[in-house]
């Protein structure tokens, strides 16, 4: 039996995900990447994971980063977040890019992390972060579903 990678990708697309912007600092300064491969791992200790693609030019910087922040993107912040798809240094107004990891205080939720582990995950690396601080506010998350962006519409 031949495995159909296109069908696999299409089937995975049936699982809606949130959209995150992960930030770190490398030798050149603040850096960001958009990721939808984010999940909780453990409450005690507080661990989360995300998975950058090995083919990404930003992969090595994120895997090596001792600290990073994962920002859960609000539905209203789609354009600002997606600017990082093309340019990992597209920090606009609202971002704080001082000496530490770049953060956006107004994001829907933020998980500040210290790198806990990195594992081979095929064409991705599974990066596990120990959560050192969290921030959250009310609002609707940006959702990615079958190649489209939107927001959750609850049933009446």
Give structural notes:
The N and C termini lie far apart (44 Å). The protein is mainly β and 156 residues long. The chain has helices at 5-12, 59-64, 78-86; strands at residues 17-18, 20-26, 29-35, 38-42, 47-50, 67-72, 109-121, 124-136, 143-145, 148-150. The chain has a single domain, classed as Pnp Oxidase, Chain A. The strands form two sheets. A seven-stranded antiparallel beta sheet has the order 3-2-6-7-8-5-4. A three-stranded antiparallel beta sheet has the order 1-9-10, with no helix packed on it.
Topology:
Elements: H1 5-12, E1 17-18, E2 20-26, E3 29-35, E4 38-42, E5 47-50, H2 59-64, E6 67-72, H3 78-86, E7 109-121, E8 124-136, E9 143-145, E10 148-150
Antiparallel strand pairs: 1-9, 2-3, 2-6, 4-5, 5-8, 6-7, 7-8, 9-10
Organism: Hasllibacter halocynthiae
InterPro entries: Flavin_Rdtase-like_dom, NADH-dep_flavin_reductase, Split_barrel_FMN-bd
Protein name: Flavin reductase (DIM6/NTAB) family NADH-FMN oxidoreductase RutF
């Amino acid at each position: 039996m031949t495995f159909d990678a296109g069908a696999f990708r299409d089937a995975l697309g049936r699982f809606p995900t949130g959209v995150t912007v992960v930030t770190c600092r490398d030798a050149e300064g603040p850096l960001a990447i958009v990721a939808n491969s984010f999940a909780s791992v453990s409450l005690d200790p507080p661990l989360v994971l995300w998975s950058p693609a090995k083919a990404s030019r930003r992969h090595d910087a994120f895997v090596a980063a001792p600290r990073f922040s994962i920002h859960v993107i609000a539905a209203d912040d789609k354009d600002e977040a997606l600017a990082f798809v093309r340019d990992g240094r597209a920090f606009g107004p609202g971002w704080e890019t001082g000496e530490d990891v770049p953060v956006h205080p107004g994001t829907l939720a933020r998980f500040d992390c210290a790198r806990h582990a990195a594992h081979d995950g095929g064409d991705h690396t599974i990066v596990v972060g120990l959560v050192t601080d969290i921030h959250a506010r009310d609002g609707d998350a940006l959702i990615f579903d079958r190649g489209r962006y939107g927001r959750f519409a609850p049933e009446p």
